[in-house]
Specification:
about 230 residues, alpha/beta, D-Maltodextrin-Binding Protein, domain 2, 2 domains, five-stranded mixed β-sheet
């Protein structure tokens, strides 16, 4: 019997936004997938060919890139951060729209302007993107890696800037921060392991086409919460 394909799904908001797509392609998760008390790490779907693994958003790219999962749903921001050569990105899923931005307290932005600077300390969970972005400006970015509560970085004097996901900007405003510039725009993508695509092309192409058809029917992007991916 052929083993089911594994689809890595990010926990949190993107997983909820992906549910209509899974329903549309005939791969709805079993009921236990939504049960917080269920400790299993792999779940069946209504499609015998597809199993789901719920993982942290940043781990989706790693599971697919290293072949633990053949398919995955992940934000474009995560793909840019990891840039794994084994990832093929065939479908924009058209939900989870947000942007990765530089932000900080307004007073700090005025006191520490980017123009003419050679060094900047930045709190972020995107150190690779951040370093590359500021390097293009001739600025060495010293990144403080945080996985949550990134807004506290400048508020507690650890950094003068943050780089984080923004959608409505409500989280920034609530913490006295303002956007300075946008690095990139992000939304959910379907990713595929390149080796799996070569060795099991018929099955995987079937699901790529199913996701593409479902995405084309979903014309309105759904915004993610700030910092959700």
């Amino acid at each position: 019997m052929t083993e089911p394909l594994v689809l890595a799904l990010p926990k949190g908001r993107l997983a909820s936004d992906c549910r209509p797509v899974l329903d549309a392609i005939g791969a709805s998760p079993e009921a236990a997938f939504s049960d917080a008390k269920d400790r299993r790490l792999r779940f069946n779907t209504t499609a015998p060919e597809i199993d789901l693994i719920p993982v942290k958003p940043f781990d989706v790219a790693t599971f697919v890139g290293f072949g633990g999962a053949q398919l995955g749903v992940v934000g474009a921001d995560v793909l840019a951060e990891f840039d794994y050569s084994e990832l093929y990105v065939p479908v924009d899923l058209r939900f989870g729209a947000c942007r990765l931005s530089v932000a900080g307290p307004e007073a700090s932005l005025k006191a520490v302007p980017l123009a003419g600077r050679s060094h900047l300390r930045v709190a972020t969970k995107y150190p690779n993107i951040t370093r590359k972005h500021f390097a293009r400006k001739g600025i060495h970015a010293e990144c403080i890696k945080l996985n949550g509560a990134i807004e506290l970085g400048p508020l507690l004097g650890m950094a003068s800037r943050i780089v984080d996901l923004v959608s409505t900007g409500a989280t920034l405003r609530s913490n006295g921060l303002v956007e300075e510039e946008v690095i990139l725009h992000s939304a959910a993508r379907l990713v595929v392991n390149r080796t799996a695509l070569k060795t099991d092309s018929k099955r995987i192409m079937k699901w790529i086409n199913a996701f593409r058809d479902a995405a084309q029917a979903n014309e309105t992007p759904v915004a993610a919460e700030d910092g959700a991916a």
